[in-house]
Design a protein that fits this description.
Layout: E1 2-6, H1 10-22, E2 26-30, E3 45-48, H2 57-67, E4 72-76, H3 81-89, E5 94-97, H4 102-116, E6 128-131, E7 134-137, E8 142-145, E9 148-149, H5 154-165, E10 171-172, H6 173-181, H7 188-203, E11 209-212, E12 216-219
Parallel strand pairs: 1-2, 1-3, 3-4, 4-5
Antiparallel strand pairs: 6-7, 7-8, 8-9, 10-12, 11-12
Helix pairs in contact: 4-6, 5-6, 5-7
Length: 223
């Protein structure tokens, strides 16, 4: 994933880019808003501050929306209701007030991508991910192993579906917890580990859900 970060504060930008890198997200940073529309090629999401030194971020958002449907998330210290309404009316897909939790930001990034992504038909082969004899139907919410149905709880399926949808890419712990449970808490990582362990047992593929130490999980071929 590639994010365009439009942020004039060097310290904030450096910290955010480092945090996003740990989540496997690449960034291009612009310190000014003017010309941002010239850097949209290959960008999946724009993170846009409103308090820019050369032009108001609202105008930047409007300029982006005039030429592209790329998702825009405003990340701003302006937290008043009127500011949020103005940002959304200018074309932003979401609005996050500083300071914010990086896990929440990453979850919102993935959420806007899901909303902007193409809606596939139920019969689309991309909705079925098959790895090592395990078939995950993302539309029908069903799982089979070597053609045999496997019953999963709702949370177990959501974890597996998230990993399957990543097509082999690593999903960070914070992203999985945020998207499956919608929040984080002190015992969240332990809860996730228990669900992964149960998944491995039910699927009969201990190495299918692979641990990436210090980062999260990915789906891969066992053996």
């Amino acid at each position: 994933m590639h994010i365009l970060l439009v942020e004039d504060d060097d310290r904030v930008a450096a910290a955010l880019r480092s945090a996003l890198r740990r989540h496997g997200i690449a960034t291009t940073r612009l310190a000014r808003g003017r010309g941002a529309v010239d850097h949209l090629a290959g960008v999946d999401v724009v993170l846009l501050d409103l308090a820019l030194p050369d032009v108001d971020g609202v105008d930047v958002c409007r300029a982006i929306r005039a030429v592209s449907e790329v998702p825009v998330i405003v990340v701003s210290a302006r937290g008043e209701v009127d500011d949020r309404i103005l940002g959304l009316h200018s074309g932003a897909d979401d609005y996050l007030v500083k300071p914010y939790d990086i896990g929440e930001l990453v979850a919102r990034v993935h959420a806007v991508l899901r909303r902007r992504g193409p809606v596939a038909s139920a019969g689309d082969q991309l909705d079925v991910v098959a790895v090592d004899g395990v078939s995950v139907d993302l539309q029908r919410h069903s799982v089979t192993v070597d053609g045999r149905p496997v019953v999963l709880t709702r949370k177990e399926f959501q974890v597996l579906a998230l990993l399957a949808g990543a097509r082999g890419a690593v999903c960070t712990r914070s992203r999985i917890v945020a998207e499956v449970w919608g929040r984080s808490w002190p015992g969240a990582n332990r809860t996730l580990d228990v669900h992964v362990a149960t998944l491995r047992t039910k699927l009969g593929r201990p190495d299918l859900v692979q641990t990436v130490r210090g980062v999260g999980y990915r789906l891969g071929h066992s053996g």
